[in-house]
Design goal:
Two copies of one chain form a homodimer. With about 300 residues, chain A is an alpha/beta fold. Chain A has two domains: about 110 residues, 2-Layer Sandwich (Nucleotidyltransferase, domain 5), CATH 3.30.420; about 150 residues, Nucleotidyltransferase, domain 5 (2-Layer Sandwich). Chain A has eleven helices and twelve strands. Chain A has a five-stranded mixed beta sheet. In chain A, strands 10-9-8-11-12 form a five-stranded mixed beta sheet, with helices on both faces. A two-stranded antiparallel ribbon of chain A has the order 5-6. In chain A, strand 8 and strand 9 form a beta hairpin. The longest helix of chain A has 20 residues. Chains A and B meet through helix 6 of A and helix 6 of B.
Chain lengths: ~300, ~300
């Protein structure tokens, strides 16, 4: 159909992944590099694309980055990583670097917004106009698709930092968020599990009391998310969600918590198809970057629009 | 500029308000009727518009209704009031009634979504692309404008029912929501104030301990809302917010709660301009209905788009 090529950069706190993909979704080549300082790391990525010029010219580059990022085209700090705890990376103008170095159309967004777009194209969000993607791992992040498009306010969603009920009689853990203490992320991300139970999450057996408690917090998060967006589906990924025993616990608690208030048959009748595990586990980052690159192509957007209407 | 006329119906649980407005915002006539059964109430509204036919032909009718409503054009129950505690009103097809009776283009949405649109045109959301409108009264409801447009998921937002921290040592009140007990609405709406303090909210003096506690809950709500949408402003109305002593308490708690995490200068430097009282107090309902009618006019939409760009 077309032999256009797209580049993607997944910018993570510990590694950067670069890839080149055909329009049909076939990845031609992929490499990963340690995250060091911005100048070295970004140059290494640029060299990756320069060294693969023989594959053809890229139509666009997508960058899905750790954050907080500024993806607002009207903002003076568009394309930057903002104030970040990652040493040396605050105020890095990522887009300007690659625009200067590679001279390509660039799409720039948060890693989790990229992952949500990837779900829309290749994952559990295919054919849906409204859904939410959550990653529960070192951090808790969300990407929201409404009416087929990514939600941005003045910045990107930071739903991981919402406040949820925390009963200290049941869970005396104070919370690990350096900003908010016992916000959702402070109670339920990977490091919180580790601090509370004094062992890493992977070492906790599936019948450990850590998991029903984790499910309590994630069900409260989903309750709030569903009351806010009334999505058609919620897709969950990230390291913590690879503990798939969590899903039935979350389904049960969420149904009880919503108590038939949100009048969506999908919740009342088929909650296990409503809150689902990502089918893109482990690939969401780089696919997200490539999805961002594809999003610059009006033809691809039209195709997805048609798919949604066909699905309706 | 134009002599087009627009009709609006504010559908409330106790009264319906009908109005006719010129495109410039001038209301020519307005009447209110008690809410009885659907057939009588809707007929009375239709007669209002028929009896004012001498003013000219209406270009469109906007209906901003109590809910839950279905404003999704692709849904089989579009234009209906869904399952509602209001006796006799569940499954009323409001749009079909007026389409049959008046034969006009009709815009239909929730009362609070209408109010958010009214803020965008005439209120504190003028010139903003992203903001949230909250009403805190008998219920707690929200309308969200993102990228200049109202947010709808599969249904309308029900953010009033989010779960927030509730410390029973400080506030042993169980919550008054028939679905969720101590969700936000169950803890912080007008009836919750009344049940907790055994007197109606208007009788509580401004220095009563009811208000700092109310501000705690509303600050948690705003914390979650701001982490979700990173709006440019939050506008608050409804009966409870006419207790304006709440605003400084909310500002203080919200700033402490967010703790500089959301990197918006408006929050850090000018929080009193960031969370504001509606300038449309008491008129949000009928203006919301008229705003919905105006929203059907592409010329009016273009005008607002230009205003935003001019404001930027």
């Amino acid at each position: 159909m077309t032999d256009q090529l797209y580049g993607g950069i997944e910018g993570g706190g510990t590694k950067f992944v670069c890839a080149i993909m055909e329009a049909n979704g076939q990845i031609l080549t992929e490499s990963r590099f340690d995250t060091t300082n911005p100048q070295t790391t970004l140059s290494t990525c640029a060299e990756f694309f320069e060294s693969h010029a023989h594959l053809g010219t890229l139509s666009a580059l997508g960058i899905a980055s750790f954050g907080p990022v500024d993806p607002n085209l009207n903002s003076p700090t568009y394309g930057h990583i903002l104030n970040t705890p990652k040493p040396g990376w605050s105020h890095t103008d990522v887009v300007a670097f690659f625009r200067r170095r590679l001279g390509l159309p660039i799409a720039f967004d948060s890693d989790v917004n990229g992952a949500a777009l990837a779900e829309q194209i290749w994952g559990a969000g295919k054919g849906l106009a409204n859904f939410v993607y959550y990653t529960i791992g070192t951090g808790i992040g969300a990407g929201v698709i409404l009416d087929g498009r990514l939600v941005h306010g003045a910045l990107t969603p930071e739903m991981g930092h919402m406040r949820v009920p925390h009963d200290r009689a049941i869970d005396p853990f104070e919370g690990s968020c350096p900003f908010h203490g016992d916000c959702l992320e402070g109670l339920a991300n990977g490091p919180a599990l580790e601090k509370r139970w004094k062992t890493s999450a992977e070492n906790l057996p599936p019948d450990h009391p850590a998991w029903p408690l984790e499910a309590d917090y994630l069900a409260a998060m989903l309750h709030n998310t569903i009351c806010t967006f009334t999505p058609e589906r919620v897709i969950m990924g990230g390291g913590v969600m690879s503990q798939t025993q969590l899903f039935p616990m979350i389904h049960q608690r969420l149904k009880r918590s919503l108590n038939n208030y949100i009048q969506l048959p999908a919740i009342e009748d088929r909650i296990e198809d409503y809150v689902v595990h990502t089918p893109l586990e482990g690939k969401a980052g780089v696919l997200g970057a490539l999805a961002l690159a594809l999003s610059l192509d009006p033809q691809q957007n039209q195709r997805r629009h048609n798919e949604r209407h066909f699905a309706e």
